[in-house]
Amino acid sequence: MDNVENASFSDNDFEQLEAWLQRRHSGILDIVTLEGFLTAILIGPNTISPMLWLPKVWGKGKPRFKDLEELNRFVALVMGLYNEIAGCFEQDPAAFAPSFYERPLNDKTVIIVDEWCEGFIKGIRVDREGWKPLKRERPDLLKPMELFGTRAGWRKLEAGGEAAMHATWSVRIAPAVREIYAYWLPYRRAVQAIPENAIRH
């Protein structure tokens, strides 16, 4: 997300949110997973209320906060990241690039994509019904995230040779996400164009 020019979500905000997530024992436990989750929520077919997806972020049971101020601060941080991702797709979807973890290995840098993909799959599951047309018509677009973000996918990676599969499929994640955004865009625009009174009737 470094390519997103958005001053509303600062490096300090990023670090605060990451620290809070890492203290959790359920729900979403790191900010890369959260970014994948929010990306799926944002680019999917339907506008999902934060009241429906925020509980998925903090996990089972009531969210534990010292007071209302801390709760409000956490929600503001999550929505700040949400708005940053939304801003990228609105301004320049072709520039979108997921945030992945990196680790050094034998004088090389290995890109870790699993957490982001797991988050993306979690986001899809918030609106399973809504995503069915894409799963039916363009399953190829979901395959990179399913490989790295599901147990069934991990078994396929292992069976196909993890290093070779990673090299082939990890580079397809960002282009697939951009295509998914484009796939749902006409649908989202059509829904947004329906007058409110028409929805009531």
Helices and strands, with pairings:
Elements: H1 11-22, H2 31-43, H3 50-58, H4 68-91, E1 101-105, E2 108-112, H5 114-125, H6 128-137, H7 139-149, H8 151-160, H9 162-169, H10 173-193, H11 196-200
Antiparallel strand pairs: 1-2
Descriptive notes:
This protein is mostly helical and 201 residues long. 67% of the residues lie in helices and 5% in strands. The protein has 11 helices and 2 strands, in the order H-H-H-H-E-E-H-H-H-H-H-H-H. A two-stranded antiparallel sheet has the order 1-2. Helix 6 (128-137) packs across helix 7 (139-149), helix 7 crosses helix 10 and helix 8 (151-160) crosses helix 9. The longest helix has 24 residues, at 68-91. The model is unreliable at 1-7 (pLDDT under 50).
Notable characteristics:
single chain; 201 residues; mainly alpha; 11 helices; globular; disordered N terminus
Distance between the termini: 41 Å
What strand order characterises the main sheet? 1-2
Distinct helical segment count: 11
Rough outline: globular
DSSP E strands, number:
2
Helical residues, percent: 55-70%
Summarize the biggest pleated sheet: 2 strands, antiparallel
Radius of gyration: 18 Å
Low-confidence spans: pLDDT under 50, at least 5 residues?
1-7
Short description:
This protein has 201 residues and is mainly alpha-helical. It has helices at 11-22, 31-43, 50-58, 68-91, 114-125, 128-137, 139-149, 151-160, 162-169, 173-193, 196-200; strands at 101-105, 108-112. The longest helix is centred in the middle third of the chain and has 24 residues, at 68-91.
